[in-house]
Amino acid sequence: xxxxxxxxxxxxxxxxxxxxxxxxxxxxxxxxxxxxxxxxxxxxxxxxxxxxxxxxxxxxxxxxxxxxxxxxxxxxxxxxxxxxxxxxxxxxxxxxxxxxxxxxxxxxxxxxxxxxxxxxxxxxxxxxxxxxxxxxxxxxxxxxxxxxxxxxxxxxxxxxxxxxxxxxxxxxxxxxxxxxxxxxxxxxxxxxxxxxxxxxxxxxxxxxxxxxxxxxxxxxxxxxxxxxxxxxxxxxxxxxxxxxxxxxxxxxxxxxxxxxxx
Length: 262
Hints:
This protein has about 260 residues and is mainly α. It is about 70% helix and about 5% strand. It is built from ten helices and five strands, in the order αααααααββαβαβαβ. A hairpin with a 5-residue loop joins β1 and β2.
């Protein structure tokens, strides 16, 4: 995992802790009927910071991955030297435009848009979950009981601990994918990183390969890939006969295409 990926992953881990801390703190002060809207605003600020960093990540890491894929075809010292240094979004745009041209730049821009859209599901999910959960806790019946101190002492503490336990197990920082599988916020981000950078790298290899009349590509699996993908390791895909190959087969896919030089 690249340094920028690690940095953003750390931000996600910190966001998980901050979100849970905000809610736990609010629950401990619940006798004073802390406004759930204020807590939600705090959570929104945390997520906004993530969103800014997600956008920065997509604009740098996906062009970088695309160029890494291109270089499997070109084996260019110019690309290799360029990738040794850190660059801004504009520097990636200028390099891709000058070295590869408009078509590749458009491909990268599409990958960036898709990556940001994919990642935005994380922010949307957490915010919707926060809004629903906090509104639920703010129901009139519960507030009335707390305001009248009908729930006190150990019973009150038990109620709070139960809510916190549910939050950690099923709440704000737990993601659900399309198969309804549960992921922690930070673990889900790792899936996004692997999926989107793999797509970008494979797109770079395929697009550049076809451009220079390479039609065959070999599928190479990582050593820790899933059992299904392992069965396809070494397969050859002929673009001339089979059309455009898939960039990844599933989220968290670990394989990549390499050009077959006849």
